[in-house]
Every structure is written in structure tokens, then in C-alpha cells.
């Protein structure tokens, strides 16, 4: 059936061309976007017409043809307005051409503004121009497209059909703009670092690989911006940030997509305490611009007003599991304690990974109000500075809102010899089969040996920030084109 409708639209397209009408002109000059008309004429009483002559353009989303008079709905990004066309005003031939327009077609319209007796702001069509003939029909229930597969694979239909989807992506853009404005206002310099890298690093993750034909070299899509941004700190840029794409060749979930957007910033002469203040101030500033300092996320009322809770990771695990991880200093003893308490957990091969698994399984989902979890195991934080007096821990925090991790921060390690030893230990893990362990980066170590000042670093997941401010449970709803499994062959042919 869809193919038959397409054939009918192709026939109408050829009829337009046979009549000398270009169904895909290059340009149309509008005087207003539709939202402006509603603002400008909001005081116009019902049944009144103005001499104001406007030109507007958009997509037809509804049509009601009733003999010599027709009512169409026209939409653009800013809103909707009704079109009223009559045979008396357009003449028989032009009116017939107008009524041949179908849902999905783009049209430019010129005419006066009036308000119907029922209060509907409308344009009285005096002239029109076809701007683009649609060859496929919009979904039957275009005003409420709910099929998740269609929404993600054909995002353009989702944006046409669902006002909530449009508003979610507008909110995302506003949040990123507010983030950028805040950092610029704090004196940070926005920079760009390589996406294709000869060696990946800055996180525990498997990379995507590519091959450069001219260089005859395997390159990696970056998993983090960290090591290049630190090179800039070494080079004398004391406050830098980047908002860009990172890539990790790993699983897909409601909070993870292989291609995602991160904001990473680094500040010389700062530590993780300074970055805590920065994180909560930035988040609150974004919330103020969006008008959402108090918001609802998945049924929870959340207040983003600083200061946020600071909570030691050890204490958070103890409160939620009854397990004091400091009493079990080896992997074996911690595994035994976990088993004795009958905690459901994937038993990881290292002590630090076990601690991280306890956090993920028993703590994260309970961190609804904004919370900084402080001080993480050294072995899962190879780029962070040791905590004074507690060498098995590092000065690191992650912050959580709505049961979801939004960011990660360190007092950055700036001792090149300590960093080399950390890399060496990660190399041993790699040789034992840990594909996520970072590689030893000689170029970065050489840069560190020229001297790096004390530095605080912060990474924030932009997609998760968007999830928070749009009350969205799945990351796919805030990424315009998320990663999806290939369609079955039979679906591709349909």
C-alpha cells in the first residue's frame, strides 16, 4: 500500500512538471515565522481581519477540503497556523492546484491575517507557491508517532510527528549553549583536539580503529580528550575545555551509546575540590538558563541549588551494603566478604574493579539528589593524584543526579615518574588480556617531563545532562541518530 501511494504522488509530480510548475524551487522569501504571527496578532479578536499582508512557509500537516473552501494546517519550526483558501479568491484553476496539495508537501503562502469566529488565527490565501512535493506520506498517526524503532531509525519522522521530541532536542542545544557560555565566562578557552589518534588513552575502554592509507598507519577514534588537553596545560593554556564526540567500542544501554558527547575541562593550579565547585556552579547555571533549578526526573523532585552533598565512596558503600571495603585490602579477601554477605555481584579480577562494581550495583541508583562521591581506588584511576596519607586512594570524584552518573573529575597526576609506573601497571593488565586498560603513551610522558602544574580536570557527559533536563530515561531519546543494530534484510526491502 505505501508503494501505491508513492506511485500516485509521483504521478502528481509529473503533472506539475507537465504544467510548467517547478515542484522544487530554490528559494522563498517569508516575512514571518509562524510563531511570530501568534505573538504579533495575539490581541486580534475573533471574527476580525487585519490589512496585514504576510508571506509564510512550512509543511502541510492537515487538510480539510469542503467544496469551494479549504482549511489546511501549516507548520514550521516555531509553530502552526491555519490556511484558509477559497475558489472565489484564487480562481478555479489555482484553487484546484491548491487542493491538490497533500499532507507532507511544503508550500509558501501570501495573504492577510484574520481570526475565525472560533478564534483560530489564520492566513487568507491570496497566492501560493509549491516549495517541495513530498513523495511519501507521513505516518498515519503522524501527530503521535510512537513506534520506537521508527522514531530512532527515521528521526526526521519523529521530529515531524512528535512535539515532545522536537522540544527535547531544542532543550539539549540550549543546555550545551549554556554550558559553553558558563565556561567562557569563567575564562576557559575552547579548543579542538584530534579525534583520530595514533594512540588512545584517558579512560578504560576498547577503541574503534581506522587505517590511514597515506600514512600506512592504524589510528584510533578517541575514547577521551584528556591526554591532549593536558598537553595544552603543559604548553601554557591554563584553562581549556572541549565539547566533542568520543567513541568507545562497547555495549549499548539506556545510558551508553558507542558515540557520545563529552565536555572535558582542565584548570591549572586547581584540584578536585575546585572542580566540585565548578561542576555544581556550571550545572546550576545551565539549570537557571533553562528555568529548571528544581526539576522532576523520572518521578523524583530534584533541587540543583548548590552546595551539593559530598560523600566518601567508602562510606556510601558501607551504608548501602554493610561492607567496609577498607577492612578487606586484597582482591581475595574482598571477594570472600562479598560472598559472605550474599551480595549479587559480578566478581571482577581486581580489588578496584570490585569496588567499582559495588558502587554500580548498590549505590548509584540511590543517588537521586545531586551528590559528589569522593576518593576512588588508585588502580582504577591511573591518571589521578594520590590522596595524602592514603596512598591506595586518589583524589577523584564522580557526581550523580537522578541515580545517574553525569561527570568524573581528578586532581590530575603531574608526577611523570609516578605516571610512567601507573602506565606500566596498566600495560601488564593489557598483556594479561584486559582490552580496556590504557596503553603506555611515551609522547604524553615526554610532555609531562617538561613540567605540568597542579591541575584539576572535569569530564561531563553531555548526553546525560540532556537526559536529566528532558526527563528522559534512554540516551537514545537525546541523540538524534543513535547507534542501532542493522535491520533484517526483509525489513530493508519493505
From TrEMBL:
Listed GO cellular component terms? cytosol
What are the transmembrane regions?
A: none
Q: Name one GO biological process term.
A: lysyl-tRNA aminoacylation
Chain residues that bind Mg(2+) 2: 405
Q: What is its main location?
A: cytoplasm
Q: Per the annotation, how and in what number is the cofactor bound?
A: Binds 3 Mg(2+) ions per subunit.
Keyword set, alphabetical order: Aminoacyl-tRNA synthetase, ATP-binding, Cytoplasm, Ligase, Magnesium, Metal-binding, Nucleotide-binding, Protein biosynthesis
Major enzyme class: ligase
Q: Which InterPro entries match?
A: Aa-tRNA-synt_II, aa-tRNA-synth_II, aa-tRNA-synth_II/BPL/LPL, Lys-tRNA-ligase_II, Lys-tRNA-ligase_II_N, Lys-tRNA-synth_II_C, NA-bd_OB-fold, NA-bd_OB_tRNA
**By its UniProt entry, which PROSITE patterns does this protein fall under?**
AA_TRNA_LIGASE_II (PS50862)
Domain Aminoacyl-transfer RNA synthetases class-II family profile: start-end pairs: 178-486
Q: Which family does it belong to?
A: Belongs to the class-II aminoacyl-tRNA synthetase family.
Query: Subunit info?
Result: Homodimer.
Q: What name has this protein been given in UniProt? A: Lysine--tRNA ligase
